[in-house]
Amino acid sequence: MKKTSLENWIFKKIGSRDIEDYQLRKLKENINYVKNNSRFYKEQLRYINENDINSFEDFEKVPFTTAEDIKDNPLRFLCVSQQYISRIVSLNTSGTTGKSKRIFFTEEDQELTIDFFKEGMKDIVNSNDRVLILLPGEISGSVGDLLKKALSRINVESYIQGPIKDVKKVSNIIKLKNINSLVGIPVQVLSLSRKEKEVFSNSIEKVLLSTDYVPNALIEELTDSGNCKVFTHYGMTEMGLGGGVECESLKGYHLREADLYFEVVSPTTGRKVKDGEYGEIVFTTLTRKGMPLIRYRTGDKGRFSAKACDCGTVLRTMDRILGRIENKVEIYDGNFLNMRDIDENLIKIKEIMNYEVSVMDNSKSQIYNKKEGKLYNYRENNIEEKSELVITAYVSKENFEVVKDEIVRNLNQIPVISKSIKKGILEIKILLPDREKESGNGTLKRRIYDYRREYEG
């Protein structure tokens, strides 16, 4: 098995094999840089000096940065004049309204991402491969555009198609361009493999999945669809799009440690957890100039592996992410339903192309809010009343009743659902629209929508 190419790349970038010494030095430098150039961090870190950071334990005393901090006033994070910003990305939280996060990048910042993509893709494709990029790429500096530039540097031919809107069109491109590798959004690639089974199994040898949590059931099906190897990538816009990617062992991500310092902390206490224990992923940028972030809480659930990777690298390995910590809803008495549990059980149903999940109020009482001009369900206790778990499933065949029954059976494999049904506080409702939904929600992360709300007059 080939060792991850990221190892030599990182050692070359940092000028030594001592990653910890490099990262600690860069953390100190960054504290000084942001305090001198960012209005936000000048205030946030007013009691912290670079000379106070002499160990990683010292760094844990530095306050966290949150998504809300960025939403409040993203311009306060800037460390350079706006004339040097070459790319601005606005991020809206799925299913909500209000302020969006705006992330700023200089041309130099984007070059760092291209360099990481180039090195990470070396473990996945080579000059004999032809890659179809099923991510946004029409705008200069978008993720698909940066990936294409990275692939060109290792002499790999690639084509940007964007998120899948027409499965048949993508299938024709795969045949026309002799595509053997895909980079795309998990649920969209799964839908493609199910609708175009022959093309997928005969053509696709390598898949890189990104932008959202990747269920194990999805990886297993794509792997079994033919001679296909499935890699996963972890990243987010705030990281500069790239964070970590799997090597040939396919057991977790090797991280972009020359550009990012990662921690895993308890979501409740904020204290660092041991390797092998799950917590919230936190990162600090080490080399970004336009909008550095210090101890940014991602909201993602993950852990560092307690074992060395089979590829033999000395780099740390982060196990595959388990999705968003907040992507759950309370059903009763502190018992939560997680999106990943639904994914692992429903993705096994091969007739389903995509689905949406929501929890509704099953109360019959309603009240009209004159100020808003809306009718709301009213419940004295927002959770203990009966709720309705609504699954809107987009399926590929007409035998809807059979699919409905299978969905219900699979959902009952989830303990919190089966217990809630027995308690009489949860009902399952399956909706099967006439149309098929191929494109999902674009690059938005999938989530459970909780439409229960207590009336506020």
Structural class: alpha/beta
CATH topology of the largest domain: Rossmann fold
Q: What is the domain total for the residues?
A: 2
Name the poorly predicted regions. 364-370, 378-383
Number of helices: 14
CATH architecture of the largest domain: 3-Layer(aba) Sandwich
CATH class of the largest domain: Alpha Beta
Percent helix range: 25-40%
CATH homologous superfamily annotation of the largest domain: ANL, N-terminal domain
Largest sheet composition: 8 strands, mixed
Q: Kindly state the number of beta strands.
A: 21
Oligomeric grouping of the chains: single chain
Globally, the shape reads: globular
**N-C termini distance:** 63 Å
Rg estimate, integer Å: 23 Å
Order of strands, widest sheet: 4-3-5-6-7-8-9-13
Taken as a percent bin, the fraction of beta residues is 15-25%
Return the average pLDDT rounded to an integer. 89
Domain AMP-dependent synthetase/ligase: 93-283
Protein name: AMP-binding protein
Organism: Clostridium tanneri
InterPro entries: AMP-dep_synth/lig_dom, ANL_N_sf, CapK_Type1_Caps_Biosynth
List its traits.
GMP Synthetase, Chain A, domain 3; globular; 4-stranded mixed sheet; single chain; Rossmann fold; AMP-binding protein; ANL_N_sf; alpha/beta; 457 residues; CapK_Type1_Caps_Biosynth; AMP-dep_synth/lig_dom
